[in-house]
Every structure is written in structure tokens, then in C-alpha cells.
Amino acid sequence: MESTTDRRLLDTGDPDPVDPDGARRANRLEHDPWRVLRIQSEFVAGFDAMSDVAAAVTVFGSARTTPDSPEYALGVELGGALAAAGYAVITGGGPGAMEAANRGAAQAGGRSIGLGIELPFEQSLNEWVDLGVNFRYFFARKTMFVKYAQAFVCLPGGFGTMDELFEALTLVQTKKVTRFPIVLLGADYWQGLLDWITGTLVPAGTVSQSDVALLHVTDSVAETVEIITRAGAHIEASTR
Ligand SMILES: C/C(=C\CNc1ncnc2c1ncn2[C@@H]1O[C@H](COP(=O)(O)O)[C@@H](O)[C@H]1O)CO
To answer: Which of 16, 26, 52, 63 is deepest in the core (most CB within 10 A)?
Structure first.
């Protein structure tokens, strides 16, 4: 399998407690400090590319959603409705649900942004992206997903989507971002997760009931857009 930049940074586990000739330490000292420059350049390129993005919503969802599926159709509808409401649509730029949301936005004449990630196999941005930025580090890319969006919408997805969802939730819960509705679109898919949070995490005291209210579950694209625009209006009013 081909390596990636992220992997060269992270997958270096050498658990041997001894480093008799100092080779491990020397190797780390030789390479790791220089990675910072690469990381820095990635942030600079991202900030530069995104600097004129106005109101935007980041859409997450499975890379494996197929174009003939109801989830794909939902993604297209969502992208179109967000564009019609004046939001740029930001996705991971990949296939599946990301492509669907980009496609909906582009077809509706809206701004369609893809923040791609280097993967161990060749992959280009989906054809519906009109502003594309490619990242080598997941964490730099994640900053852009949050920094330039007013809300997150999650379509059905797997580990990647869960990771992005829970990162967003943690940022909102800890008030690192204060403006963020998070909508889970597709009630059949998401309700079980909400039930588990309410039925297991809340009674265990690991999250509070008010944290659950950070999540909105719906089947309706119109309601999704309504939740996002309502939150935007509140923010505008509170900053006036
Ligand atoms: C698995 C395949 C391609 C993967 N390509 C991806 N391209 C861009 N972004 C991706 C990709 N895979 C995951 N992501 C990110 O995670 C979320 C989706 O992950 P999930 O596990 O599929 O839910 C998505 O929002 C991306 O940001 C070949 O089909």
C-alpha cells in the first residue's frame, strides 16, 4: 500500500523501550521538526483559498453512497436547497454523499467547495467541485471544515462521518465554536445514535441533557435549511 503524508507523521510506532545507539531519536529529530513547515504551508494554502468564502455549510456523509441510492438523492436535494438559500456547500470533495451535495449545489448555481485529502490510493476531487483544495493532513483540513462554515449537516455515513460529527459536537460543547447547528439528515439512520446518547450517555453522566439538544435529527431538507437560517438570524441579531 502506498504511504501518505499523514501516515509518515503518525504511523511511526516503535515501541522498543531502548534506543541503544540513539538512532530512533536521531531519526525523529532529523524529520519531525521539518514537518512543521509542511503543515504550516498547508494551513497557509487553505486559508488563502478559502479567504473569500461567505456563508457556507459543511456537509459530511459516506464516501460509499452510490449514485442510485436514496441517500445520494437526498444529498443532491440538500446541496441544491443550501445553494438556493445562499450558502456555499463545503464537502470532503470525494465520492458518494460528498459528490451528491457538491452536485446539488453546482446544479443550483451555488458555490461548490471540495476539501480533498491525500489517500493511499489515487483519488481526485469529484467533478462537481468548483473550488477545490487538496490536503495532506486530516487535521489541517478539519480546521477548514469548521472555520468557514456556519453549520454542519451529516448525511448517513461511516467512521469518517462519525469522526467529523463528534469533532464538531465537541467543539460546540466546549464552546470553541458558538454558532453551529448540527443537523443529522436521515432519521432512520441517525435516531439510534441519538437514542443511545440519551439512553446511555446521559444516565451515565458523561454528557448532559442539554448537550443532546445540540443535535437536530430530521428527514426534511427544508427543515434542515430552516434550522440553519434560524440559527444564522439569531447570531446576526445578537451581534447587532
Ligand atoms: C472509500 C473511498 C473513498 C474515500 N475517499 C474520501 N475522499 C474524501 N473524503 C473522505 C473520503 N473518505 C472519507 N472521507 C471523509 O470522511 C467522511 C466520509 O467517511 P465515511 O467513513 O465514508 O463516512 C467524509 O465526510 C470525508 O470528509 C472509495 O469509495
So the answer is: 63
